[in-house]
Amino acid sequence: MMRFQNRLLIGAASVFALATTSIATIGPAATTWAAENDRDNNAQAAAAPATLSLQLTPSSAQLATCMPNADVDVNVKLTTDKKGFDIFDIRARHIAPNRDYTVFLLEKAGAPFGAAEYIGDLSTNDEGNGDAEFHLIVQEAFSSTIVNGQRVRVDLNRVGMWFADPKDDDFCLGPNSPITPFDGDNEAGVQAFNSANADPLPAP
Fold it and tell me: With contact defined as beta carbons under 8 Å apart, do 143 and 124 qualify?
């Protein structure tokens, strides 16, 4: 009987020792895994591209009255260092429906605009909603021109958006509204929205 009890005691001690060893082994491993996971998360956060955000507003009080619920937002992911281009997302809600709009980077948000770069088109549906994504260099966008015989750099850090067809602004401005050159065929309506009320895109 004593020998049997001894075997029970020895067995229990072995189980306790095994459990203690397992806990000691698992504890540091779990701590190491958690630390590595935190490092990975921090690295991913550091690697995430910076994003610039700005809002475009109607270019005139009359257009603002005609599109009272207009909401046009621009988000730019600065990915040029990694991809060779930035990602320019533009989202329009409740603007004039069933129209095409041209989008430009500008020297100045309002007239006379200065240097301009045509970067893409946005189209709206029946509800006046539309989205577009353009791949181009945004933060370092510039124009090179000659002033007084000297070549100068002009940063393009404003955004503007035009009615692509001259007739597309007639719903608000009437049939005799100006025809502008802000489209590929050199005929567009007036500027619909711009970033005059937002901070300029940061120059390099």
Answer: no
